[in-house]
Specification:
Elements (H helix, E strand, L loop, with lengths): L1 H9 L4 E5 L5 H11 L2 E5 L3 H8 L10 H9 L2 E4 L10 E4 L14 H10 L8 E4 L7 H11 L10 E4 L18 E5 L2 H12 L5 E4 L2 H31 L4 H8 L23 H11 L5 H27 L8 E5 L14 H11 L3 E5 L23 H5 L3 E4 L8 H7 L3 E3 L11 E3 L1
Parallel strand pairs: 1-2, 1-4, 2-3, 4-5, 5-6, 7-8, 9-10, 9-11, 11-12, 12-13
Antiparallel strand pairs: 6-7
Helix pairs in contact: 1-7, 8-10, 8-11, 11-12
Amino acid sequence: MKSDLINKLKSTNAVIGVVGLGYVGLPLTLRYCEVGYRVVGFDIDQGKVDTLKRGESYIEHISAADIKRAVAGRFEPTSDFSRAREVDALILCVPTPLDRYREPDLSFVLDTTDALVPHLHENMVISLESTTYPGTTDEELKPRIETRGLKVGKNVYLVFSPEREDPGNQSFSTRTIPKVCGGHTPDCLEVGLALYGSVIDRVVPVSSTRAAELTKLLENIHRSVNIGLVNEMKMVADRMGIDIHEVIRAAATKPFGFVPYYPGPGIGGHCIPIDPFYLTWKAREYGMHTRFIELAGEINSSMPDYVIAKVADGLNAKKKSVNGSKVLVLGIAYKKNVDDMRESPSVFLMEKLRDLGAEVAYSDPHIPVFPKMRQHSFALSSVALSAESLKKFDCVLLATDHDKFDYDLIKTHAPLLVDCRGKYCEGAAHIVKA
């Protein structure tokens, strides 16, 4: 039975089911289609399904031409989870956010699994890609799968293979980013390697699903801690009258033992602001208090307040208050050159400024209209940058340094410019470094 499934997966005769057609699931879907697999894509958002069926894209860095090609070929988007009975593999790419108490919210994973269980069958593989704490796959998914009368490792196979997508990164693609994979049993791992081996250049096996789950957390905690360090260094350097970006550039000339990280107004995206808390929550079950990780989280979470204080200082120097001032936020995506707003610190800055009485606007060439979000609401459209439009604002806050911005125009015509990204190295009376 296992060998039949492996042969099917390796020959591209298998039908692949991808659940969750967002920033992770959609690129993976297109990669399977590119290789020649038939893919059934599942999403609870009927609007997304309809958009894909029309051959259109809702993610900026994924072209409509790629969607059209896939839909005209072997890609079938659907919101009908009963079609899971047609597939040989199910890959779960659904969100794993935090709840309002900053604790793991597995509702998307568990609700999705529960919806799929009635349609599972023998000789298939289920892979979870959503970032989560060690133990989720075998503690939560395995028991649910086995309520169907299946036996994981015998007639159905279960793996964890964390996503590593980096939206907007032109240097790496779904194909070229190495894929970590851990199975619940050795047989599960063998099937998992076959699942990904035909579409990913290098698949990295690990000993268990828990090892794979912790691998993803370590990757993102490593980034969170180092960003927390450089954000703290930024505040120290500022007090000392030193440009932290000059220091980072100089330190980065060392060819060993140093990796440059850059400060900002906070951290964003679906991974770095969230993933560390999955481990700190799980560590408490083992009597561990992850002080280092939590301290980095506290520093990173405090950065929007630091930036707002810089805005207030800049306005005060011009004998103005935040209350009543017009503030233009440049860039509301969580990082440069993408349209991804998940956990964007720019949005938190906008909310804090609004709460202080500022009249807030934004400009972002990648996000023409402020989208509907579960926790944030602004009825705004992107402001086109010109000499005239910039002069209308009391303060321009550079939050996300998109390459499409005209930085000379901004510097020349912004009455007050608060720079969170170190784009302006030279000093100027109207530029405040934050």
